[in-house]
Amino acid sequence: MDEPKTDIKSLLEAIAKVHEKMPFNRFLGLKVDYLRTDGAGFRFPMKDEFVGNPIHGILHGGVISAALDATGGITITASAVGKMLGLSYKEIARRVARMGTIDVRVDFLRPGRGTEFLSTATIMRTGKKVAVTRMELRNQDDLLIAVGTGTYIVG
Fold first, then answer.
1. CA–CA separation, 78 vs 12, rounded Å?
2. What is the maximum alpha-carbon separation in the chain?
3. Which of 7, 71, 105, 152 sits a CA distance of 20 to 30 A from 125?
4. Which of 115, 119, 114 is nearest to 146 (CA)?
5. How far apart, in Å, do the first and last CA atoms of the chain sit?
6. Residue 3 reports pLDDT greater than 70
7. Residue 61: is it exposed, middle or buried by C-beta count within 10 angstroms (0-12/13-18/19+)?
8. Is 135 in contact with 120 (CB distance < 8 Å)?
């Protein structure tokens, strides 16, 4: 019996579920805000465990970096599977399992104050082996806190 053909909507839904269930992403409270083949966004709340400066109560830089990296990762995954339509789910899963972070650069623009944060990413370039994303972290007031660039292995 032939496996059903893949479609982008079901693939993006599956990617969102997998990324939200990853243990570290669950710890961060990352929830997919949107997911497309050209960009993605995660929302997450401020938690006491995320405080990097107890005097000012601001978000730890490691949390910022991790959220930006996760957002870049889900973005390149969505972009890559958009080019795999027609392959079996098994083959897509095999290819996605080989993807990962090569490098992340983060520029901290201002203290991470807020009650909720939105981390977004867009594709800058995708090649046969490597993809590059541009990421941003904003608070609930749309104040830009940090930007980043992520490089990921995709092939």
1. 6
2. 62
3. 7
4. 119
5. 29
6. no
7. middle
8. yes
Work out the percent of the chain whose per-residue pLDDT is above 90: 91
- Residue 2 predicted with pLDDT over 60: no
Cβ neighbour number for residue 53 with a 10 Å cutoff:
12
- The tokens for 129 are 């082996």
DSSP string, the chain: -PPPPP-HHHHHHHHHHHHHHSHHHHHHT-EEEEEETTEEEEEEE--GGGEEETTTTEEPHHHHHHHHHHHHHHHHHHHHHHT-TTS-HHHHHHHHHT-EEEEEEEEE-S----SEEEEEEEEEEE-SSEEEEEEEEEETT--EEEEEEEEEE--
The CA distances from residue 38 to 3, 96, 97, 99, 133, in Å, are 27, 16, 20, 17, 10
Tokens of 19: 């990324």
CA-to-CA distance for 103 and 94, rounded, in angstroms?
Answer: 22
Percent of the chain at pLDDT > 70 equals 97
